[in-house]
Design a protein that fits this description.
Blueprint: H1 9-18, E1 27-34, E2 54-61, H2 68-84, H3 94-118, H4 121-130, H5 146-153, E3 158-166, H6 174-189, E4 194-203, E5 215-224, H7 232-243, H8 250-259, E6 270-276, E7 284-285, E8 288-289, E9 304-310, E10 313-321, H9 327-340
Parallel strand pairs: 4-6, 6-9
Antiparallel strand pairs: 1-2, 3-10, 4-5, 7-8, 9-10
Helix pairs in contact: 4-8, 6-7, 6-9
């Protein structure tokens, strides 16, 4: 990708992603030169590497291939292919290709069977009872008039905040992160609401090979704002029960909730994703380690979204749609989230 005059590497990446065509490969790589006057995050002068100019490599995946296991395999094989380039790099053999396709086909059939079983009457009754009181709030919040003005002034459509905090040796449990998101949602929407918070969950069905690509579903967690669980085990117990029914397709769950009397339309008030960086190798090309960076300003697929990276530290990041939440309120919500952790 050749940046336009004065265009940062981050802006160039956003531009090519904006023009993404859904017809095509599920994995795409974009390489953007990062000159001495360009910062990877678009925020000023680049730090400058010890060996001269740097480049930004964007590894972009469709949602069908974006789980941690797939990313680990991509990073590992990309590094190995780079090391072998010009020496022993060869195309995969027809036998290897056929074996991979057979494994993928088997994984798809196993997943279809799992989803068919997950749509049982008992599962639908569970979700109907679980989500009966849910109703999204962001859709009826006063709309911030900032989006047209932001576009005119060159501001980005989404805001962001991030912080790193010490990570427990055993890691931070998913229920703890759900409770932290509840604290943020309380700041955003006030008390006494039951909001739908979604998180991706999935992988490969039992017995499937470790194929590239996974089967993601969005699981809904009813978040009661303004409340403090009696004990951490309360959130954990409800979450484990949800996971027993997590394979039920999202649209089926929405239908079950509405049949049970919920006014929920299927929109989510927030999203939570967790990435365990301890389970994947760092990208190294030619012996040079890469460093991960965030590209700000992409559209948000929800009023707010929290991403957590588990590593030597707990890296917390929240982005929000400026057409729904003001920067000040969202930053206060992020502070409540970090304080909860």
């Amino acid at each position: 990708v050749a940046p336009a005059p004065g265009e940062s590497a981050a802006t160039a990446v956003r531009r090519v992603l904006h023009d993404w065509s859904p017809e095509g490969a599920p994995l795409r790589l974009f390489l953007v030169p990062d000159g001495p006057d360009r910062a990877p995050d678009g925020s000023g002068a680049a730090p400058g590497g010890p060996d001269g100019p740097q480049e930004v490599l964007a590894v972009v995946l469709e949602h069908t291939a974006c789980d941690g296991q797939s990313l680990a395999r991509i990073v590992e094989e990309l590094g190995a292919a780079y090391a072998a380039a010009g020496h022993t790099a060869d195309e995969p053999s027809p036998t290897d290709v056929a074996a991979e396709l057979d494994a993928y086909r088997e994984a798809v059939l196993l997943q279809l069977d799992a989803e068919d079983r997950a749509g049982s009457p008992a599962a639908l009754a569970y979700w109907g009872d679980r989500l009966r009181a849910v109703r999204e709030r962001a859709a009826v919040s006063p709309q911030q008039p900032a989006r047209p003005a932001a576009a005119a002034s060159g501001a980005l459509p989404s805001g962001s905040a991030e912080r790193r905090i010490p990570a427990p040796e055993t890691g931070t449990s998913f229920p703890q992160l759900l409770d932290a998101c509840r604290a943020a949602a309380t700041v955003l929407h006030g008390k006494a609401h039951v909001l739908p918070l979604g998180y991706p969950w999935g992988g490969r069905p039992p017995g499937a090979a470790p194929v590239l690509g996974c089967f993601l579903n969005t699981v809904v967690f009813p978040t009661a704002t303004g409340t403090t669980p009696a004990a951490p085990e309360e959130t954990a117990g409800a979450w484990w029960d949800d996971l027993d029914h997590a394979a039920a397709p999202f649209d089926t769950v929405v239908h079950a909730a509405r049949t049970a009397g919920s006014a929920w339309t299927g929109r989510l008030d927030g999203l939570l994703t967790v990435d365990d960086a301890r389970r994947r190798p760092a990208l190294r090309l030619g012996g040079v380690p890469g460093r991960e960076l965030h590209i700000d300003g992409r559209p948000v697929r929800g009023p707010f979204a929290v991403s957590v990276t588990q590593g030597p530290e707990l890296a917390l990041r929240m982005v929000w749609d400026r057409a729904v939440h003001s920067d000040g309120t969202a930053e206060d919500a992020f502070a409540a989230l970090t304080d909860a952790l």
